[in-house]
Protein backbone atom coordinates (compact mmCIF):
# COMPACT_ATOMS: atom_id res chain seq x y z
CA UNK A 1 0.00 0.00 0.00
CA UNK A 2 1.23 3.50 -0.85
CA UNK A 3 2.53 4.97 2.40
CA UNK A 4 1.02 8.41 1.84
CA UNK A 5 -2.40 6.96 0.94
CA UNK A 6 -2.38 4.82 4.09
CA UNK A 7 -1.46 7.80 6.25
CA UNK A 8 -4.14 9.97 4.64
CA UNK A 9 -6.78 7.29 5.20
CA UNK A 10 -5.79 7.05 8.83
CA UNK A 11 -6.10 10.84 9.02
CA UNK A 12 -9.32 11.03 6.98
CA UNK A 13 -11.36 12.70 9.72
CA UNK A 14 -8.90 15.58 9.98
CA UNK A 15 -8.70 15.90 6.19
CA UNK A 16 -12.47 16.04 5.84
CA UNK A 17 -12.63 18.59 8.65
CA UNK A 18 -10.23 20.81 6.70
CA UNK A 19 -12.39 20.39 3.60
CA UNK A 20 -15.46 21.28 5.67
CA UNK A 21 -13.75 24.44 6.91
CA UNK A 22 -12.77 25.45 3.37
CA UNK A 23 -16.33 24.78 2.19
CA UNK A 24 -17.83 26.81 5.03
CA UNK A 25 -15.47 29.69 4.25
CA UNK A 26 -16.54 29.57 0.59
CA UNK A 27 -20.23 29.79 1.48
CA UNK A 28 -19.57 32.48 4.08
CA UNK A 29 -17.84 34.60 1.46
CA UNK A 30 -20.32 33.90 -1.33
CA UNK A 31 -21.98 37.32 -1.18
CA UNK A 32 -18.66 39.10 -1.68
CA UNK A 33 -17.08 36.65 -4.13
CA UNK A 34 -17.15 37.94 -7.72
CA UNK A 35 -19.97 36.36 -9.69
CA UNK A 36 -17.39 35.87 -12.45
CA UNK A 37 -13.80 36.95 -12.97
CA UNK A 38 -10.91 36.81 -15.39
CA UNK A 39 -8.29 34.63 -13.67
CA UNK A 40 -4.57 35.16 -14.12
CA UNK A 41 -2.67 32.64 -16.20
CA UNK A 42 -1.21 30.26 -13.60
CA UNK A 43 2.25 28.80 -13.87
CA UNK A 44 2.33 25.36 -15.41
CA UNK A 45 1.53 22.75 -12.80
CA UNK A 46 3.86 19.78 -12.31
CA UNK A 47 3.35 16.21 -11.23
CA UNK A 48 5.45 15.57 -8.09
CA UNK A 49 7.70 12.54 -7.98
CA UNK A 50 6.46 11.69 -4.52
CA UNK A 51 3.00 12.64 -3.35
CA UNK A 52 2.43 15.71 -1.20
CA UNK A 53 -0.36 14.16 0.81
CA UNK A 54 -3.96 15.35 0.96
CA UNK A 55 -3.39 18.19 3.43
CA UNK A 56 -0.56 19.79 1.43
CA UNK A 57 -2.53 19.28 -1.80
CA UNK A 58 -5.49 21.09 -0.22
CA UNK A 59 -3.32 23.97 0.94
CA UNK A 60 -1.75 24.27 -2.51
CA UNK A 61 -5.17 24.31 -4.13
CA UNK A 62 -6.41 27.00 -1.70
CA UNK A 63 -3.42 29.18 -2.51
CA UNK A 64 -3.16 28.73 -6.29
CA UNK A 65 -6.63 28.05 -7.60
CA UNK A 66 -9.43 28.62 -5.06
CA UNK A 67 -9.22 32.46 -5.03
CA UNK A 68 -9.97 32.55 -8.76
CA UNK A 69 -13.05 30.33 -8.81
CA UNK A 70 -16.22 32.22 -9.67
CA UNK A 71 -19.31 32.69 -7.56
CA UNK A 72 -21.36 30.68 -10.05
CA UNK A 73 -23.09 28.90 -7.17
CA UNK A 74 -24.28 32.24 -5.81
CA UNK A 75 -27.45 34.31 -6.26
CA UNK A 76 -26.13 36.83 -8.80
CA UNK A 77 -24.65 34.50 -11.40
CA UNK A 78 -27.26 35.03 -14.10
CA UNK A 79 -25.30 33.71 -17.07
CA UNK A 80 -26.49 30.73 -19.13
CA UNK A 81 -29.09 28.94 -16.93
CA UNK A 82 -27.07 28.01 -13.88
CA UNK A 83 -28.78 26.92 -10.71
CA UNK A 84 -26.93 26.89 -7.43
CA UNK A 85 -27.04 23.90 -5.10
CA UNK A 86 -29.46 23.63 -2.22
CA UNK A 87 -27.97 22.73 1.16
CA UNK A 88 -29.57 19.28 1.03
CA UNK A 89 -28.26 18.67 -2.51
CA UNK A 90 -24.74 19.53 -1.35
CA UNK A 91 -25.04 17.05 1.50
CA UNK A 92 -26.18 14.38 -0.93
CA UNK A 93 -23.41 15.16 -3.39
CA UNK A 94 -20.71 14.88 -0.72
CA UNK A 95 -22.05 11.42 0.12
CA UNK A 96 -21.94 10.44 -3.56
CA UNK A 97 -18.15 10.63 -3.35
CA UNK A 98 -18.01 8.95 0.05
CA UNK A 99 -20.09 5.94 -0.99
CA UNK A 100 -18.66 5.91 -4.54
CA UNK A 101 -21.37 3.67 -6.01
CA UNK A 102 -21.33 2.70 -9.69
CA UNK A 103 -25.04 2.67 -10.46
CA UNK A 104 -25.25 0.18 -13.32
CA UNK A 105 -26.93 -2.89 -11.84
CA UNK A 106 -29.11 -3.80 -8.86
CA UNK A 107 -27.37 -6.94 -7.71
CA UNK A 108 -24.76 -5.38 -5.40
CA UNK A 109 -26.31 -2.19 -4.01
CA UNK A 110 -29.56 -0.39 -3.32
CA UNK A 111 -28.28 2.67 -5.23
CA UNK A 112 -30.10 1.75 -8.45
CA UNK A 113 -33.38 1.39 -6.56
CA UNK A 114 -32.89 4.83 -5.07
CA UNK A 115 -32.45 6.21 -8.58
CA UNK A 116 -35.72 4.58 -9.63
CA UNK A 117 -37.53 6.08 -6.64
CA UNK A 118 -36.01 9.50 -7.35
CA UNK A 119 -37.24 9.29 -10.94
CA UNK A 120 -40.70 8.45 -9.59
CA UNK A 121 -40.65 11.53 -7.36
CA UNK A 122 -39.58 13.65 -10.32
CA UNK A 123 -42.41 12.26 -12.43
CA UNK A 124 -44.74 13.38 -9.65
CA UNK A 125 -43.11 16.83 -9.58
CA UNK A 126 -43.53 17.24 -13.36
CA UNK A 127 -46.98 15.60 -13.52
CA UNK A 128 -45.83 12.79 -15.79
CA UNK A 129 -47.89 9.57 -16.00
CA UNK A 130 -46.63 6.28 -14.59
CA UNK A 131 -46.03 4.83 -18.05
CA UNK A 132 -42.91 7.01 -18.35
CA UNK A 133 -39.57 5.54 -17.40
CA UNK A 134 -36.50 7.65 -16.79
CA UNK A 135 -32.86 7.76 -15.82
CA UNK A 136 -30.19 10.25 -14.84
CA UNK A 137 -27.59 11.41 -17.34
CA UNK A 138 -24.87 14.05 -17.20
CA UNK A 139 -26.84 17.02 -18.57
CA UNK A 140 -29.49 18.24 -21.01
CA UNK A 141 -27.21 17.60 -23.99
CA UNK A 142 -26.95 13.92 -23.12
CA UNK A 143 -30.67 13.76 -22.28
CA UNK A 144 -31.44 15.17 -25.73
CA UNK A 145 -29.00 12.66 -27.21
CA UNK A 146 -30.85 9.79 -25.55
CA UNK A 147 -34.27 11.07 -26.58
CA UNK A 148 -33.21 11.56 -30.20
CA UNK A 149 -31.48 8.16 -30.25
CA UNK A 150 -34.82 6.57 -29.32
CA UNK A 151 -36.56 8.73 -31.92
CA UNK A 152 -34.09 7.57 -34.57
CA UNK A 153 -34.72 3.95 -33.59
CA UNK A 154 -38.48 4.47 -33.88
CA UNK A 155 -38.22 6.10 -37.31
CA UNK A 156 -36.09 3.35 -38.82
CA UNK A 157 -38.39 0.69 -37.39
CA UNK A 158 -41.03 2.20 -39.67
CA UNK A 159 -38.69 1.25 -42.53
CA UNK A 160 -38.30 -2.29 -41.18
CA UNK A 161 -34.73 -1.75 -39.96
CA UNK A 162 -33.05 -2.03 -36.56
CA UNK A 163 -30.10 0.33 -36.86
CA UNK A 164 -28.61 -0.74 -33.54
CA UNK A 165 -27.85 -3.98 -35.41
CA UNK A 166 -27.72 -2.95 -39.07
CA UNK A 167 -26.59 0.67 -39.04
CA UNK A 168 -27.84 3.68 -40.98
CA UNK A 169 -26.57 2.56 -44.38
CA UNK A 170 -28.99 2.60 -47.32
CA UNK A 171 -31.69 4.38 -45.29
CA UNK A 172 -33.34 7.63 -46.41
CA UNK A 173 -32.47 10.78 -44.51
CA UNK A 174 -34.29 11.10 -41.19
CA UNK A 175 -35.89 14.54 -40.98
CA UNK A 176 -35.70 16.43 -37.67
CA UNK A 177 -38.13 19.33 -37.46
CA UNK A 178 -38.42 22.19 -34.97
CA UNK A 179 -38.34 25.91 -34.37
CA UNK A 180 -35.86 27.75 -32.13
CA UNK A 181 -33.87 24.64 -31.30
CA UNK A 182 -31.16 24.58 -28.66
CA UNK A 183 -27.62 24.02 -29.94
CA UNK A 184 -27.48 20.66 -28.14
CA UNK A 185 -30.06 19.30 -30.59
CA UNK A 186 -27.65 19.98 -33.45
CA UNK A 187 -24.85 18.38 -31.48
CA UNK A 188 -26.92 15.28 -30.71
CA UNK A 189 -28.06 14.91 -34.33
CA UNK A 190 -24.42 15.12 -35.42
CA UNK A 191 -23.32 12.48 -32.89
CA UNK A 192 -26.18 10.20 -33.95
CA UNK A 193 -25.04 10.21 -37.56
CA UNK A 194 -28.21 11.85 -38.87
CA UNK A 195 -26.32 15.00 -39.85
CA UNK A 196 -27.08 18.62 -39.02
CA UNK A 197 -28.43 19.10 -42.54
CA UNK A 198 -31.31 16.80 -41.60
CA UNK A 199 -32.70 19.56 -39.34
CA UNK A 200 -35.50 21.64 -40.83
CA UNK A 201 -35.96 24.93 -38.96
CA UNK A 202 -39.53 26.19 -38.96
CA UNK A 203 -40.57 29.84 -38.65
CA UNK A 204 -41.74 31.18 -35.32
CA UNK A 205 -44.92 33.06 -34.61
CA UNK A 206 -44.54 36.83 -35.10
CA UNK A 207 -42.46 38.36 -32.30
CA UNK A 208 -42.07 34.95 -30.65
CA UNK A 209 -39.69 32.01 -30.44
CA UNK A 210 -42.63 29.58 -30.48
CA UNK A 211 -43.06 27.44 -33.57
CA UNK A 212 -45.87 28.30 -35.95
CA UNK A 213 -47.78 25.00 -35.74
CA UNK A 214 -49.47 25.63 -39.10
CA UNK A 215 -46.05 25.54 -40.80
CA UNK A 216 -45.26 22.32 -38.95
CA UNK A 217 -48.43 20.76 -40.31
CA UNK A 218 -47.55 21.99 -43.78
CA UNK A 219 -44.13 20.31 -43.50
CA UNK A 220 -45.66 17.05 -42.30
CA UNK A 221 -48.21 17.11 -45.09
CA UNK A 222 -45.54 17.79 -47.71
CA UNK A 223 -43.44 15.00 -46.18
CA UNK A 224 -46.04 12.61 -47.60
CA UNK A 225 -46.40 10.38 -44.60
CA UNK A 226 -42.68 9.74 -44.11
CA UNK A 227 -41.97 9.20 -40.39
CA UNK A 228 -39.85 11.95 -38.85
CA UNK A 229 -38.80 13.53 -35.55
CA UNK A 230 -40.43 16.69 -34.21
CA UNK A 231 -38.60 18.59 -31.45
CA UNK A 232 -40.72 20.97 -29.38
CA UNK A 233 -39.42 23.56 -26.95
CA UNK A 234 -40.71 23.88 -23.41
CA UNK A 235 -38.71 27.01 -22.68
CA UNK A 236 -36.33 28.53 -25.22
CA UNK A 237 -32.97 29.79 -24.00
CA UNK A 238 -33.38 33.45 -24.94
CA UNK A 239 -36.93 34.21 -23.85
CA UNK A 240 -38.31 30.98 -22.29
CA UNK A 241 -40.95 30.74 -25.00
CA UNK A 242 -43.04 27.58 -25.26
CA UNK A 243 -44.26 25.71 -28.29
CA UNK A 244 -47.94 24.78 -28.21
CA UNK A 245 -47.29 21.15 -27.37
CA UNK A 246 -50.99 20.35 -27.07
CA UNK A 247 -51.61 21.45 -30.66
CA UNK A 248 -48.56 19.54 -31.89
CA UNK A 249 -49.83 16.39 -30.16
CA UNK A 250 -53.09 16.66 -32.12
CA UNK A 251 -51.13 16.34 -35.38
CA UNK A 252 -50.14 12.81 -34.37
CA UNK A 253 -53.64 11.69 -35.33
CA UNK A 254 -52.84 12.51 -38.96
CA UNK A 255 -49.07 12.22 -39.39
CA UNK A 256 -46.41 9.75 -38.23
CA UNK A 257 -43.76 11.44 -36.06
CA UNK A 258 -41.92 11.07 -32.79
CA UNK A 259 -42.34 14.04 -30.45
CA UNK A 260 -39.32 14.94 -28.33
CA UNK A 261 -39.77 17.82 -25.87
CA UNK A 262 -36.71 19.78 -24.80
CA UNK A 263 -37.84 21.05 -21.40
CA UNK A 264 -34.37 21.51 -19.93
CA UNK A 265 -35.51 24.18 -17.50
CA UNK A 266 -38.94 25.22 -18.79
CA UNK A 267 -40.30 21.90 -17.58
CA UNK A 268 -40.17 23.32 -14.06
CA UNK A 269 -43.21 25.43 -14.97
CA UNK A 270 -45.03 22.28 -13.84
CA UNK A 271 -44.07 23.11 -10.24
CA UNK A 272 -46.42 26.10 -10.08
CA UNK A 273 -50.15 26.29 -10.79
CA UNK A 274 -49.44 29.78 -12.15
CA UNK A 275 -47.33 28.45 -15.01
CA UNK A 276 -48.25 24.79 -15.50
CA UNK A 277 -50.39 25.56 -18.55
CA UNK A 278 -47.18 26.48 -20.38
CA UNK A 279 -46.26 22.80 -20.58
CA UNK A 280 -49.75 21.52 -21.41
CA UNK A 281 -49.41 18.39 -23.54
CA UNK A 282 -45.85 17.57 -22.43
CA UNK A 283 -47.19 14.51 -20.59
CA UNK A 284 -48.05 12.95 -23.98
CA UNK A 285 -44.62 13.33 -25.60
CA UNK A 286 -42.57 10.32 -26.65
CA UNK A 287 -39.41 11.56 -24.90
CA UNK A 288 -38.56 14.48 -22.62
CA UNK A 289 -35.39 16.23 -21.48
CA UNK A 290 -35.26 18.02 -18.11
CA UNK A 291 -32.11 19.34 -16.45
CA UNK A 292 -31.42 18.91 -12.74
CA UNK A 293 -28.39 21.19 -12.38
CA UNK A 294 -30.53 24.06 -13.59
CA UNK A 295 -33.76 24.70 -11.70
CA UNK A 296 -33.64 21.67 -9.42
CA UNK A 297 -30.49 23.28 -7.99
CA UNK A 298 -28.32 20.20 -7.60
CA UNK A 299 -24.58 20.19 -8.34
CA UNK A 300 -23.23 19.60 -11.85
CA UNK A 301 -23.53 17.23 -13.69
CA UNK A 302 -27.13 16.03 -13.60
CA UNK A 303 -30.17 15.75 -15.85
CA UNK A 304 -33.03 13.36 -16.54
CA UNK A 305 -34.38 11.75 -19.67
CA UNK A 306 -37.92 10.40 -19.70
CA UNK A 307 -39.65 8.21 -22.27
CA UNK A 308 -42.71 6.04 -22.70
CA UNK A 309 -40.82 3.70 -25.06
CA UNK A 310 -38.38 1.92 -22.77
CA UNK A 311 -38.12 -1.09 -25.10
CA UNK A 312 -36.53 1.13 -27.76
CA UNK A 313 -34.09 2.44 -25.18
CA UNK A 314 -32.92 -1.08 -24.47
CA UNK A 315 -32.53 -1.78 -28.19
CA UNK A 316 -30.25 1.25 -28.57
CA UNK A 317 -28.19 1.05 -25.38
CA UNK A 318 -28.15 -2.65 -24.49
CA UNK A 319 -24.73 -3.65 -23.24
CA UNK A 320 -24.05 -7.16 -24.50
CA UNK A 321 -21.34 -8.21 -22.09
CA UNK A 322 -21.19 -11.80 -20.91
CA UNK A 323 -20.69 -10.76 -17.30
CA UNK A 324 -23.76 -8.50 -17.23
CA UNK A 325 -27.39 -9.55 -17.42
CA UNK A 326 -29.33 -8.62 -20.54
CA UNK A 327 -32.95 -8.81 -19.38
CA UNK A 328 -35.27 -6.90 -21.70
CA UNK A 329 -38.14 -7.20 -19.22
CA UNK A 330 -36.25 -5.62 -16.31
CA UNK A 331 -33.26 -3.86 -17.82
CA UNK A 332 -30.51 -2.51 -15.60
CA UNK A 333 -29.34 1.09 -16.03
CA UNK A 334 -26.33 -0.12 -17.98
CA UNK A 335 -28.79 -1.00 -20.78
CA UNK A 336 -30.56 2.38 -20.69
CA UNK A 337 -27.95 5.12 -21.01
CA UNK A 338 -24.79 5.80 -23.03
CA UNK A 339 -22.65 5.28 -19.93
CA UNK A 340 -21.49 1.95 -18.63
CA UNK A 341 -20.01 3.48 -15.49
CA UNK A 342 -22.45 5.89 -13.80
CA UNK A 343 -21.87 7.90 -10.64
CA UNK A 344 -24.60 8.00 -7.99
CA UNK A 345 -25.94 11.33 -9.33
CA UNK A 346 -29.51 10.59 -8.25
CA UNK A 347 -28.56 11.01 -4.59
CA UNK A 348 -28.33 14.84 -4.48
CA UNK A 349 -31.71 15.00 -6.27
CA UNK A 350 -33.21 12.56 -3.77
CA UNK A 351 -31.88 14.64 -0.86
CA UNK A 352 -33.23 17.95 -2.16
CA UNK A 353 -36.62 16.53 -3.16
CA UNK A 354 -37.04 14.93 0.25
CA UNK A 355 -35.80 18.03 2.06
CA UNK A 356 -37.96 20.64 0.32
CA UNK A 357 -40.77 18.81 -1.46
CA UNK A 358 -43.32 20.14 -3.92
CA UNK A 359 -43.99 23.31 -1.97
CA UNK A 360 -40.30 24.16 -1.79
CA UNK A 361 -39.85 23.96 -5.55
CA UNK A 362 -43.08 25.81 -6.18
CA UNK A 363 -41.69 28.65 -4.07
CA UNK A 364 -38.28 28.60 -5.82
CA UNK A 365 -39.86 28.77 -9.28
CA UNK A 366 -42.34 31.48 -8.37
CA UNK A 367 -39.73 33.60 -6.58
CA UNK A 368 -37.24 33.35 -9.45
CA UNK A 369 -39.97 34.48 -11.84
CA UNK A 370 -40.82 37.33 -9.49
CA UNK A 371 -37.16 38.41 -9.42
CA UNK A 372 -37.07 38.33 -13.22
CA UNK A 373 -40.12 40.59 -13.27
CA UNK A 374 -38.54 43.01 -10.79
CA UNK A 375 -35.52 43.39 -13.06
CA UNK A 376 -37.84 43.72 -16.05
CA UNK A 377 -39.62 46.65 -14.36
CA UNK A 378 -36.30 48.40 -13.76
CA UNK A 379 -35.24 47.89 -17.37
CA UNK A 380 -38.61 49.07 -18.72
CA UNK A 381 -38.38 52.32 -16.78
CA UNK A 382 -34.76 52.98 -17.76
CA UNK A 383 -33.48 55.13 -20.62
CA UNK A 384 -30.22 53.13 -20.77
CA UNK A 385 -31.71 49.74 -21.64
CA UNK A 386 -34.60 48.27 -23.59
CA UNK A 387 -36.28 44.89 -23.56
CA UNK A 388 -36.12 42.91 -26.78
CA UNK A 389 -38.83 40.43 -25.73
CA UNK A 390 -41.44 39.99 -23.01
CA UNK A 391 -40.27 38.26 -19.84
CA UNK A 392 -42.37 35.10 -19.87
CA UNK A 393 -40.77 33.17 -17.03
CA UNK A 394 -37.29 33.37 -15.51
CA UNK A 395 -35.07 34.85 -18.27
CA UNK A 396 -34.90 38.56 -19.06
CA UNK A 397 -33.66 39.41 -22.57
CA UNK A 398 -32.64 43.03 -23.11
CA UNK A 399 -30.12 45.22 -24.86
CA UNK A 400 -28.40 48.59 -24.56
CA UNK A 401 -30.45 51.59 -25.70
CA UNK A 402 -27.81 52.52 -28.25
CA UNK A 403 -28.73 53.35 -31.83
CA UNK A 404 -27.36 50.54 -33.99
CA UNK A 405 -26.10 48.55 -30.99
CA UNK A 406 -23.46 45.98 -32.00
CA UNK A 407 -22.19 42.79 -30.44
CA UNK A 408 -18.93 44.62 -29.73
CA UNK A 409 -20.94 47.11 -27.65
CA UNK A 410 -22.55 44.25 -25.75
CA UNK A 411 -19.24 42.50 -25.12
CA UNK A 412 -17.58 45.70 -23.93
CA UNK A 413 -20.44 46.28 -21.51
CA UNK A 414 -20.38 42.69 -20.21
CA UNK A 415 -16.60 42.89 -19.72
CA UNK A 416 -17.14 45.94 -17.52
CA UNK A 417 -19.76 44.03 -15.54
CA UNK A 418 -17.40 41.10 -15.08
CA UNK A 419 -14.64 43.40 -13.86
CA UNK A 420 -17.09 44.91 -11.38
CA UNK A 421 -17.89 41.38 -10.16
CA UNK A 422 -21.32 41.90 -8.64
CA UNK A 423 -23.27 40.12 -11.36
CA UNK A 424 -22.51 37.89 -14.34
CA UNK A 425 -24.60 37.98 -17.53
CA UNK A 426 -24.09 36.48 -20.96
CA UNK A 427 -24.63 37.79 -24.47
CA UNK A 428 -26.96 36.47 -27.13
CA UNK A 429 -28.49 37.36 -30.47
CA UNK A 430 -32.26 37.71 -30.55
CA UNK A 431 -33.95 38.09 -33.94
CA UNK A 432 -30.94 39.94 -35.32
CA UNK A 433 -30.43 42.18 -32.28
CA UNK A 434 -27.30 41.82 -30.10
CA UNK A 435 -28.66 41.32 -26.61
CA UNK A 436 -28.04 40.28 -23.01
CA UNK A 437 -29.62 37.46 -20.99
CA UNK A 438 -30.29 37.43 -17.26
CA UNK A 439 -31.38 33.93 -16.19
CA UNK A 440 -32.79 33.54 -12.68
CA UNK A 441 -32.54 29.96 -11.46
CA UNK A 442 -30.73 30.09 -8.09
CA UNK A 443 -32.76 29.22 -5.01
CA UNK A 444 -31.12 32.04 -3.00
CA UNK A 445 -31.71 35.08 -5.24
CA UNK A 446 -33.86 37.69 -3.50
CA UNK A 447 -34.88 41.36 -3.61
CA UNK A 448 -31.58 42.50 -2.10
CA UNK A 449 -29.76 40.85 -4.98
CA UNK A 450 -31.94 42.68 -7.49
CA UNK A 451 -30.87 45.98 -5.92
CA UNK A 452 -27.20 44.98 -6.14
CA UNK A 453 -27.66 43.75 -9.71
CA UNK A 454 -29.34 46.98 -10.77
CA UNK A 455 -26.63 49.12 -9.19
CA UNK A 456 -24.00 47.07 -11.03
CA UNK A 457 -25.84 47.40 -14.34
CA UNK A 458 -26.14 51.15 -13.87
CA UNK A 459 -22.50 51.54 -12.86
CA UNK A 460 -21.23 49.63 -15.90
CA UNK A 461 -23.48 51.67 -18.15
CA UNK A 462 -21.91 54.84 -16.76
CA UNK A 463 -18.50 53.48 -17.65
CA UNK A 464 -19.43 52.90 -21.30
UniProtKB/TrEMBL annotation:
Post-translational modification N6-(pyridoxal phosphate)lysine, affected residues: 294
Keyword S-adenosyl-L-methionine: no
Coiled-coil regions listed: none
GO molecular function: aromatic-L-amino-acid decarboxylase activity; pyridoxal phosphate binding
GO biological process terms, semicolon-separated: amino acid metabolic process; carboxylic acid metabolic process
SUPFAM superfamilies found in the cross-reference section: PLP-dependent transferases (SSF53383)
Key words, A-Z: Decarboxylase, Lyase, Pyridoxal phosphate
Cofactor(s) listed: pyridoxal 5'-phosphate
Pfam family of the protein (one): Pyridoxal_deC
Similarity comment text for this entry: Belongs to the group II decarboxylase family.
Protein name: Glutamate/tyrosine decarboxylase-like PLP-dependent enzyme
Species: Scopulibacillus darangshiensis
